[in-house]
Amino acid sequence: MELKYSTKNAWEVLKHDEVINFSESYKDFISNAKTEREAVKYLKNVAEQNGFVDLFKGDTHSGKYYAINDNKNIFLLKDGILGVENGLNFVFAHIDSPRIDIKQNPLYEGADVVMFKTHYYGGIKKYQWVTIPLALHGVIILKDGTKLEVSIGESETDPVFVISDLLPHLAKKQMEQNAREVIQGEALDPIVGSIPDKESDKEKFKTAILKLLNEKYGIVEEDFISSELTLVPAGKARDVGFDRGAIASYGHDDRICGFTGAMALIDATNPKRTIGVMLFDKEEIGSDGITGAQSDFLDYAIEKYLALKGIKNVSVREVLHKSYGLSADVNAAIDPLYRDVFDDQNSPIFGHGVVVTKFTGSGGKYSASDASAELVFKVRKLFNENGVPWQIGELGKVDVGGGGTVAKFMANRGIQVLDVGPALLSMHAPFELASKVDLYSSYLGYKAFLEKFE
């Protein structure tokens, strides 16, 4: 009997080739799904390739379904041996990430350059977003109703967009400011043009950009009002280190869990209970709105599933109260450069497998979801029995900070839920770091939970 608790580096446990192969598929996803819309579109295509059908179109024989809400939620569902009236095994994650959004009336010129006015989304360190290449993603609905999908800055031949910063020679006052104030929110405006229109008398530079956009895309300035445009770091995910053991990418938080959860459900075989993976939007700003975790889309989709299966006299509420779920969200790995903010004994270690987080919140567990000891035991036992590398962890020292996930909103529905996800370095930075072995451990953990938890 081993008396002391300890964890191993998961590279010592898992098969190297399996880890690398899975990482390559994830890198394709995370490089090409930089917004919620793109993530939903990508996963819908993968689901359809694997025989999933639209839940709302009423095919009772498939046994594998997806449901999409407003292009920003996707719910994957697979029949189990037991009917849905016995509850589901869920994995919940979110597919939105911190970013910089373009305002609805964005174009202006000053000092002979044209810029976009912006509004940042979610918790960012604003100074990290200046002087790096940014790509423009999103949609614009034109005056005639045409939907224009936008992705500029990802190809090597594309232009990129850059937010300028003050040169150190003139930055004496700036360098004395608090880190929160070094870059103001109103100073996160990228340069989008600098060549004048020779035929114009006023706003020559802005006019030149509007003419270019109209000639190339049919856009007029009013079209920006019906747009959703966002700036994200340009470029693909990259391997990190001489050994290529980690991945640097924008959007690991939390699309790493969205991808691993979705792949776990698609690959799950003969699950005893009905299984579902629900991917939400708006987690980074409070989970509000019709695509956030506080909306009723999940309830609505289950209601449709019950009707599709001809199950009567069973309410959605009853189904949810018999369900279990993993809130799949990232944690913060101990950073050796900033060790003083972590509780070494209770914080996760990079590369030691997926992290089980009993409670979230901040301070005195404020706004927390706190799973029961019984649920933690069941998941712990499941992972141990199925060779899933895992570790216990929480987000930093008690009085330093903390964070939340969608777990509390699922718990409010009566679902017994526990937070489980990989630990990152540089969370919420333009480029976050994820261990390939933690990525694969998460997939294995979610798959074991979906297939075997009861």
Automatic annotation (TrEMBL):
Q: Its Enzyme Commission number?
A: 3.4.11.-
- Which cofactors does this gene product need? Zn(2+)
Q: Which Pfam families match?
A: Peptidase_M18
Which InterPro entries does the record cross-reference, listed alphabetically? Peptidase_M18 (IPR001948), Peptidase_M18_dom2 (IPR023358)
Which GO terms of the molecular function aspect are on file?
Answer: aminopeptidase activity; metallopeptidase activity; zinc ion binding
Q: Which UniProt keywords apply?
A: Aminopeptidase, Hydrolase, Metal-binding, Metalloprotease, Protease, Zinc
Q: Name one GO cellular component term.
A: cytoplasm
Query: Which example biological process does GO assign this protein?
Result: proteolysis
Q: Does the UniProt entry include the keyword Glycoprotein? A: no
Q: Which family does it belong to?
A: Belongs to the peptidase M18 family.
Listed name of the protein: M18 family aminopeptidase
